[in-house]
Q: What sequence folds into this?
DNA sequence: GCTCATTGCTACATGTCTGTAGCAACACAG
DNA sequence: CTGTGTTGCTACAGACATGTAGCAATGAGC
């Protein structure tokens, strides 16, 4: 009989290894987001690409290598987005307003998250079954980021003349920013970014020291 | 030969079903905390109690039922702890200071978490492989709690004369409280509870409407 | 059109966990 | 000490995912 009814599988289109690799990673990410990481099975990823298991093993040594590659890619994307978001600690004479620095940073961060939700979902709202290695790596990056925010806080609180624990302040800002990002991801469309930045600005304004001290002693 | 060397298994002590059930659940919780939920395997739980698999099946219909029971127990414990923490919305004439209400609530919450870390760890720092059903249930409870906090915020912000979005304020307080609790759990001993309550009080004091420059940015 | 390196497929062997059936040890009542 | 019900054990069968070996289809270059 002619192969008019290729019941099993219609011999998938051939792809060069690099493209296949990318395609498989994207499919794996979709599976993780929609049905959890435990749904990232060799068979599952292969099916999602209309391909059989040995094809996956052609691109990744084993399931662990696939997951590692997925985490690598997400981390890479997130970090490159973050690099554009966070300002350096301003120099001594810099006239930048600390409050506006925070608001601008929050705005940029939230827009970056909204612009690439698939990547940030995996980081901020880890789907079921996320590998421990991934949590470890995102937490390591969080610590680095926190260190940077701590530097900014030292500078900003001093400049503002606000007497607050800089460590906890940095952590609070970070926690709230991630919380806002989670709301954005969980319910896109409901929360315009300005909703959060306006709120942030209101709080900072409310916290303005009523009688501002001397701007700088030299 | 005498059974001097019971190589395989020394016939575990017999327990009535209720006690066995509790023991199995505790062992499962330990496994989840130490090695992730995927380590909760029938065999693993049984071994941890010095028992064989059919004993587990005597107490739970299957693995899913075991996990459900574990989630039930955690939820129950957490909710009964929370019930003692959160105050009702004060009546109209009540002279309670809103800021002190927040600080006292935070204090009580953090102490409740510190008093039962195994329960709260599972909720606030879900180990690897946590079942989606569990996340769904804790999130449902979070929504309820948030509703209550929203009521308190409406009252407190009005009474204080602070013009802030009550919904976001409630969410912010909740997010920060959970963040503080996570720090407590992740690194017990490093963070005295007063560290957080003092910081919280400092912020609220700084936000006292002493000299609000302009209420709204046109 | 043929050749041949490349890409994908079928089929197998293995390991780990689940869930069940039927037997064996214990301990308490009398 | 002996019966009897309860609790635990050994042993089996099946599901599902992994990872591998060897064959088959494809299509670009001559």
A:
């Amino acid at each position: 009989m002619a192969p008019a009814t290729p019941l099993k599988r219609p011999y998938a289109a051939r792809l060069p290894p690099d493209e296949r690799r990318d395609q498989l990673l994207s499919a794996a990410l979709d599976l993780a987001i929609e049905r959890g990481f435990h749904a990232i099975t060799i068979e599952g990823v292969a099916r999602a690409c209309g391909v059989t298991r040995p094809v996956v093993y052609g691109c990744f040594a084993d399931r662990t290598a696939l997951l590692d590659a997925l985490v690598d890619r997400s981390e890479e994307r997130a970090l490159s987005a973050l690099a554009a978001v966070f300002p350096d600690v301003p120099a001594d004479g810099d006239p930048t307003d600390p409050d506006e620095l925070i608001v601008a940073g929050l705005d940029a961060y939230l827009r970056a998250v909204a612009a690439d939700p698939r990547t940030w979902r995996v980081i901020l709202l880890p789907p079921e079954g996320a590998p421990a290695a991934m949590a470890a790596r995102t937490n390591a990056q969080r610590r680095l980021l926190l260190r940077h925010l701590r530097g900014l806080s030292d500078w900003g609180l001093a400049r503002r003349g606000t007497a607050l624990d800089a460590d906890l302040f940095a952590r609070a800002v970070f926690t709230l920013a991630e919380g806002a990002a989670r709301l954005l991801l969980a319910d896109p469309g409901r929360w315009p970014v300005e909703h959060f930045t306006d709120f942030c600005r209101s709080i900072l304004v409310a916290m303005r020291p009523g009688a501002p001290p001397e701007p700088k002693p030299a």
User: Anything to note?
Assistant: Chain A touches chain B at residues 36, 38, 128-132, 135, 162-165, 168-169, 171-172, 175-176, 179, 183, 195-196, 199, 201-203, 205-211 (CB under 8 Å).
